[in-house]
Amino acid sequence: MSKNKIYKPRPISGFPEWLPEIRRVEQQWLDHFRKIFESYGFCSIETAAVEEIEVLLAKGETDKEIYTLTRLQADEKDKSDARLALHFDQTVPFARYTALNFNNIVFPFKRYQMQKVWRGERPQLGREREFYQCDIDVIAVDNLPLHFDAEMPAVIYEALDGLDIGRVQIKINNRKIICGLLEFLNIDEVILTTRIIDKLDKIGEDEVRKQLASEINLEDKQIDLILQLSIIKTRNPVELENEVKKLNVDNEKFDEGLKELVFVLKQLQHLPEHAVIVDLSVVRGLDYYTGTVYETNLLDIPEFTSSVCSGGRYDDLAGGYINKHLPGVGISIGLTRLFGVLLENGYIKNKKMSPAEILMVLPSEDRRMQAYQTAHALRKNGFNVEMYHAPQKIKKQIAYAEKKGIKYVWFPPFDDEGEHEVKTLDTGEQKKTTPDSWIINEKS
Amino acid sequence: MSKNKIYKPRPISGFPEWLPEIRRVEQQWLDHFRKIFESYGFCSIETAAVEEIEVLLAKGETDKEIYTLTRLQADEKDKSDARLALHFDQTVPFARYTALNFNNIVFPFKRYQMQKVWRGERPQLGREREFYQCDIDVIAVDNLPLHFDAEMPAVIYEALDGLDIGRVQIKINNRKIICGLLEFLNIDEVILTTRIIDKLDKIGEDEVRKQLASEINLEDKQIDLILQLSIIKTRNPVELENEVKKLNVDNEKFDEGLKELVFVLKQLQHLPEHAVIVDLSVVRGLDYYTGTVYETNLLDIPEFTSSVCSGGRYDDLAGGYINKHLPGVGISIGLTRLFGVLLENGYIKNKKMSPAEILMVLPSEDRRMQAYQTAHALRKNGFNVEMYHAPQKIKKQIAYAEKKGIKYVWFPPFDDEGEHEVKTLDTGEQKKTTPDSWIINEKS
User: Fold this and answer.
1) ipTM of the predicted structure?
2) What is the domain partition of chain A in residue ranges?
3) Size of interface A-B (CB pairs under 8 A)
């Protein structure tokens, strides 16, 4: 026993950590996202965990969430790192990275980025201080075809649909429609108004009506038209066009938004019926988005009520950092947030701690070399094999495999005349084999 | 053009970032490490980026490298995150994680961890402020078989040998040998003495002799024996035993160390001749290690002179955090450090920016649906396919594929009577195909 003075560590609130068997699932999710993102040609980048504070604050607003860095015993003369802070999302770093590397990037630039970000918020379930975000964006110089707006939901649907979390539904809208309507109605308070509309699903029609009247002083006729538009939900491009045109809004931006939205919806007809829906109340709080916007809901997970994954089209990614016009479209999965809620509610059940498929038993000291060689041969053929290094009781070795979730226990010959045997733990079946025949069988 | 005020970002010294084509190579390295680690049954964990400062300082010494966190606009009443700092390695977090989750872990606990760590050092090539470490450790309760000491170099050799960086050589020693010798010679200054011996390869015999005399006041006879021991280098266990026994050192710890080292060396005879060497001058500065120690050199990369990967056996991992005796053995690859030096010296040459293997050409607007369907079918069969969304000149589309390093350009039929064709960019060869026959051919 150690006789040191003991400092008993505590979990740090807001900084989630998983046991190995849960981390395995998280890693499988990350791998799956990566596979889908790469299958559409998105390339990986990672940016530094830190940014200059000036870069992070270029857009304002978020300053209270930022963690700044200080060296515990900084050299007084060295001020080089005085102004660093941890990034709180991946959009600002992506914009800064693109500006910095502009001449070495081929556009349209399709990138994915799966890193941890940090926010000094008050921690609560689904709102951590450290969490993974998984983002994809496409940006181009001056012009980006609208077809990319349709590619985003296709990619995201494939990414989320592969997770075994029930039905995924992507809600789509185009901010030009509501902005055009407000223009048509001579309403200037675009940000405030859209923020209220965005709450339609949560607070209901009556409350939206009340807030639009009390907070923005809109007239009943204005509110009527806004609500008639906002309640439209459809999967059908023809129906969408008909319903919206009934409102008789005469505005150029409005028409452009509708045309774009119909176009995007048409491109998504190959996805399952439930996968996509146009919902004209989805307008996203951020004025940052200028066209298509997305939100994503899980239809079969009642505990997860907010959007898993959101994003949209923006006019200019990096205007604050470079004198180029870089329009883009992107979407972001809040991985840790989703994962944490699913875990908490019992949807994530993996109990396999070890990546090994086979535990190589060591029957006795004199069989060690044969056990090693067998393990080695299996590894060379792509199997994950953990070696039990101590020649303890066979029962103990099998129990170890069971506790670690290892499927097969391999017994090398117990003597020179013996044969290899493999036991499948969940069925209890045990049969004779050889490394060669095992490799051939399992690979076919 | 944007009319915003522009804040031109600069690269942040010590926080390396790669272009997509270089990030691809880094990701391939990480994937390769992971594959090898998992093939030996190591499981993945990730710990929070932060630790309580008290946890980080439990071992003292490193305080000046630590970055502490402050919320930019902290709530005055909320002191919950007042004492956090970024981790500077993965050993302290691993020890803390093990102590915290002790009852939910199956021992021996084999884990790998590949995360970024942060040190507020003065940046220079090969010494960054943010870098990836790739660590493997095995820990057990009370006893860990010595065979794990031999498994470590086998794993690390496979991991590094797969990187196409020339010959890898792992130097092995056992600290008990030198500590036993110092005991035998009645020398108390173990840390100081071993630190001088450790520099033998760099500063040479004469300088070591001088420093041992001037800094620790050792007598010539003592120094002679230390040097006779330290210059021993061999691949052969029998030779090792003979050479060391010639010194006639009568000390129990010394004998134990030799026995362990011979044992480990014998287990590694299956590795190539150059892969392993016992070098009795390798003692590692840290008194933290208590038995086997490792260092790793690249024999064919003269620009990388220090150890790529080091580690050893320790008596007690988490004694500062839990009242349990947890001996272990571990090794750590300084990935970013190695990667940065190789990149700087032209050893890393990948120029493939995109993960896509195929660019799907869009010949004209009316072929769009067919192009999409073809891309979709290929993706479903495991190919990475980027779609060119704008029906621009074919030449422009091919040039795009070339710039992104995409190998094949796929032309869907230009009209209803046409056929699919695929051009291989590096050979210029172009031939007719169908999605079905392509999938069958490429997969076989």
Assistant:
1) 0.94
2) 358-443
3) 292
